[in-house]
Design a protein that fits this description.
mainly alpha; 2 domains; 6 helices
Amino acid sequence: MTMVIRRIARPLLAGVFVIGGIAELRDSRGHAKTAHVVLEQLAKRVPVEKPPSNVALVLADAGVKIGGGMLLALGKAPRLAAAALAVSLIPTTLAGHRFWELRDPEQRQLQQIQFTKNMGLLGGLMLAMVDTEGKPSLVWRAQRAGSKARRLQARAQRAGSRARRLRSGLRVG
């Protein structure tokens, strides 16, 4: 049953990102203007000699949204795709839905709803990021492999000690 839900939920969650990425490709200059405030603040904090243009960053974001959305929808590397989409969603939300700066109550409410919707999408992406599909996580598997390797090493050391004792006993007798 949960596999059926995953097959339905992933494309539903991913669709908004694919559509958004296509919209960014079609109007990259308009999106770059909207993102200007956040991108300028980011440029001040990231020590880069010559930062890429805002349009180039918007195009990269569009690629992440389309590529990550398609991967998530198809169930290919869904945890990685969800993580990439989550990283992309945060600056997009901060740039596009700055409701706290608006004076018009109607526009403010509209942007606050969009901001909250994006936070809901972020929550869905976070769930997708931790969904191991019933399989143990990579961390658990790595820890288990390490424990197994330590047990095997201890056995080998004990066996080596026994062999040395046997060899030394044979020489004396």
